Amino acid sequence: MDNPVAFIEKHGVVLEGSRGPVPSLAEAIAGEAIRGSWWGHSKGKSIFWATRAVRDSSEVLVCRLIGGKVTYVHRRLWPALVRLAKGLDKSGLAAVRETHAKSGAHNVRMVPFSRWVTLETRRQAERLSEEDARAQFGAWIDAYLHQGRSPTVGERR
Prior knowledge:
three-stranded antiparallel beta sheet; alpha+beta; two-stranded antiparallel ribbon
């Protein structure tokens, strides 16, 4: 896969490596279903570098929206996500931010939903109806709204 961010833009919401109601980046790169961890797959290094490119992109929100698993949401869906947020688990909407120290240490911090959403994104969300926002995500989102839970990994797409 030449451009993992374009893959996420096309699909809107993508899981990093798990199976669920949306595509998996790891499986798209592997070209097949992956049993167990993608780290052990023959294309594991390619998958890893694709995940780094995505995590470094300002076009993608990295969060844990679906079943607590790493989920990528493209910028084009951020207003719709904000519009629907009241029906989703806020902890799953926190942005996952990674930093790497010169020593090689890997630090992960969670930026609460209320802090990563910009004023412009909020304004765009206000102009969307809930119906239009749901339509942007597709049918899978309806099962999770207003249920107080995040979408579950393993539910088939």
